Amino acid sequence: MHANKYAEPVTALGLMSGTSLDGVDIALIETDGHAVQRFGPVGERPFTLQERDLLRGALADAQTLTDRHARPGRLAEAEAMITDAYAETIRDFLAGRENEPVAVVGVHGQTVLHRPKDRLTVQLIDADALARRCGLTVVHDLRGADVAAGGQGAPLVPVFHQALARAAGLEPPVAVVNVGGVANVTWIGESDALMAFDTGPGNALLDDWVYRHTGEPMDRDGALAASGAVDERALAALEAGLSDYLAQQPPKSLDRLDLSTGEALEGLSLEDGAATLSSFTARCVASARDHLPEAPKSWIVCGGGARNPELLRALTDALPGDLTTADALGWRGDFIEAQAFAFLAARSLQGMPITFPGTTGVPRPLTGGSVTQPERAA
């Protein structure tokens, strides 16, 4: 715990649905926007197969968007589904927890398009409807102001990673690797120095490969990859296809649909493809070292990828220094992003910055988020 020289702590809920399309995570924390005074309970609401299919369709329909508020094709249906899922998750989570006086809900929504070079980022969530249904203040659109100011709009979680590392007393420099659909790294140096960027694929390509061949949403426990072999020719082709991005200096970020296997995996078995894609994710994370100010003394892995033993093995082989998981440090690795959106909502309410030149390339530390009060929701 840290002495609170900021505002009084508030109880905040955070909700996150990421590019892995696996479901909605929810977490409760008490925070002053600088440190976390208390970590509360967490929960999840998985998407059904039909909901995942709808989101995949919305991702495809979003590729022609030029107006971040337009909802053509399946986007309107997907936004209604996401809003319903968030509202149900909040209702079920708070049932029996009337003693938790929630002050604010921070929501991410579902990203369907991220084109910062065009100053365009689109997350599906009807914040007015959500505020009305849950009767709580909702902070949303946490990427919009950053992108409008010329930033990448991603990653958003580094300032929370910084708070976690500070509270844990970790010796800098430290790198936190979040392996969601897209993977990103947060580098934390002396005096809370921050750098962050997307490293390349996380689980997205692997999930898509497994879904296409089996109908299952993921390689559970890395079992498929563990029984396959890395195809070096295919791996080289995958790296060549992303070489321009990997060489690009930060700040930088990726859209999920920027990632493609092309024809690199043609002819590979399910298992060999899974092994090759796991290695590809690890290689991309390892290549991030070339852009960091100083080599990290330790690497902390969180997100869905931290539950994949084969991916962890590949990361251990690819990265020098100590590697551990967020859960091994006592963090809730699967729920860090949900906790982060609660944290960011508290910072937003106080006008504190949530993005920084070293994390998104925004010209100056910038606050963000739109606030919707339940009584003012249209």
3D structure, described in words:
The chain is an alpha/beta fold. The chain is built from 13 helices and 13 strands. The model has no long low-confidence stretch (mean pLDDT 95). ATP binds at residues 18-25. Residues 369-378 have a biased composition (Polar residues). Its EC number is 2.7.1.170. InterPro entries: Anhydro_N_Ac-Mur_kinase, ATPase_NBD.
Task: Please render the helix and strand layout as text.
Layout: E1 10-16, E2 23-31, E3 36-46, H1 49-61, H2 75-94, E4 104-107, E5 110-115, E6 120-124, H3 127-134, E7 138-140, H4 144-148, H5 158-168, E8 174-179, E9 182-188, E10 194-201, H6 204-214, H7 223-226, H8 232-241, H9 243-247, H10 270-287, E11 298-302, H11 309-318, E12 322-325, H12 336-349, H13 357-360, E13 370-372
Parallel strand pairs: 1-4, 4-7, 8-11, 11-12
Antiparallel strand pairs: 1-2, 2-3, 5-6, 7-13, 8-9, 9-10
Helix pairs in contact: 1-2, 2-3, 6-10, 8-10, 10-11
Radius of gyration: 20 Å
Label the overall shape. globular
Oligomer kind: single chain
- What is the CATH level 1 assignment of the largest domain? Alpha Beta
**CATH fold description of the largest domain:** Nucleotidyltransferase, domain 5
The CATH architecture classification of the largest domain is 2-Layer Sandwich
Q: Return residue spans where pLDDT drops below 50 for at least 5 consecutive residues.
A: none
Q: What is the percent of helical residues? A: 25-40%
Largest sheet data: 6 strands, mixed
Q: How many DSSP H or I helices?
A: 13
Mean pLDDT: 95
Kindly estimate the percentage of residues that lie in beta strands according to DSSP: 15-25%
In the sheet with the most strands, the strands line up as 3-2-1-4-7-13
Which superfamily, in CATH terms, is the homologous superfamily of the largest domain? Answer: ATPase, nucleotide binding domain
Distance between the termini: 40 Å
The figure for the number of domains is: 2
What is the string of helix and strand elements? Answer: EEEHHEEEHEHHEEEHHHHHEHEHHE
What structural class do you assign from the helix and strand content? alpha/beta
Tell me the total number of β-strands.
13
